[in-house]
Amino acid sequence: MHTTKSENEDVEDKSPQPSPTSQILKSRREYTETTLSETEETKPQERKEIEIPCPPQGTLNEVITNGIILFLLWSVAWSFSGSEVLPGGNLFGLLIIFYCSLLGGKLLEVIKIPSVPQLPPLLGMLLGGFTVRNIPFISEHININSVWSSTLRNAALTIILIQAGLGLDPKALQHLKRVCLRLSMGPCLVEACSAALFSHLFMEFPWQWAFLLGFPFSFVLGAVSPAVVVPSMLLLQEQGYGVEKGIPTLLVAASSVDDIVAITGFNVCMSIVFSSGDLLNTLLNSFWEVILGVLLGVALGIFAQYFPSRDQTKLEWKRAFLILGLCVSAVLGSHRAGLHGAGGLCTLLLTFLAGLKWSKEKIRVQKIIAGTWKVFQPLLFGLVGAEVSVLSLRENSIGTCVATVSLALLVRICATFFLMSFAGFSFKEKIFIALSWMPKATVQAVLGPLALETARVVAPHLEDASRDVMTTAFLAILITAPNGALIIGLLGPKILTRADPRLYKSSIDLAIAH
Length: 514
Known about the structure:
The chain has 514 residues and is mostly helical. The protein has one domain (148-511): Up-down Bundle (Na+/H+ antiporter like fold). It contains 22 helices and no strands. It is globular.
């Protein structure tokens, strides 16, 4: 062993040792390679910063393309209508409001605050129309015929009703029928009564008009907005919050029924308020409108189940066009005939019955209808914002309107909490449902201006009170829509129990996939 150790030491001593010169050359070579590699890494980065693609691509190309498309739309409209698209014309005013509302909605989509839920784009659309109306130089050239404005809003109402009818899922309604009916009807009716009372106390409506004019006004306030509730609930449902007890499914289904109750109640009360005959004849006429709407909706709904047949090509496009044509004709035709409540009921029953036969295939039809809503949504909220002029507001009108909205909303929240107390929800879940049942937007945007337009034509002495209704609807959207979206997005993950959403799939998930 001693001999082996000594031999190894001799071998180590005989191994060549690097000279000082070779060490210096090696260090210089390593330094040169390191410098070259760093230079090569920095050169591509510098080129990327100064490179400008030609022709432009990405966002810049999209902005230029959209600008050219908008200009071409104006050019085509000018070639057909001439002066209507010039300043002061109806089409010019509609185009300006549409562009500004669309821009306001896009800006609100771009603005994202960390850890804060996304605000609904409809708020930006509303403010876009309001800005156009209250800028002195621009507002002088924005003149829109009241007939055009009313027709567009009624068309938007038709699309809302179509989405509500197609969004109703019979299996989900059957499973949650008791809770859904309580949630959709109870808070809406309670808020209607409380708003009628507060309209007398704060807005100085006479008692004889507080419940007559107050009730359609209250139904304007009472409707919850699916445009805010549905996207927020779908997001929570995808993450698994509240799916174990079906809270997102319940709120989505009840929001459609809630709109149906509010719109029907509004039409009935409007026919009573602005009727020139006695009350008994008015009630009989309203009952006749309901019967006519139901019969017509059932007949057309059964027709739409079988026409077009399944063996035709582009089936979903033909169904969507047929539904749009029938429903728009029913709503606008009923207004022409003076039967204001028949068209809405016809639309709801028609779409619901047609969707029963289409089964899961109705999702494709819903996506097409949702595409038309993308066009009418900026117009609807832009026109509502353009109806509110700061100069025409009466003294203290904003304060009284805000007080009425706030107190009626407080009563609604308490009523919702009480009605959910017997549905098997925990204390935190009841708080969440009550606060989630406050956003208002789409129905208010349609029904608020309708009261003002009807008063201008039928009862000019009620124009001031109807203008207050319009202002209240505007403020209700402005206050409740963003706050409702924020409350749902912030409280949902903190209050609701989380579970695997795949274990609690519901058929309504497909029905509202648009």
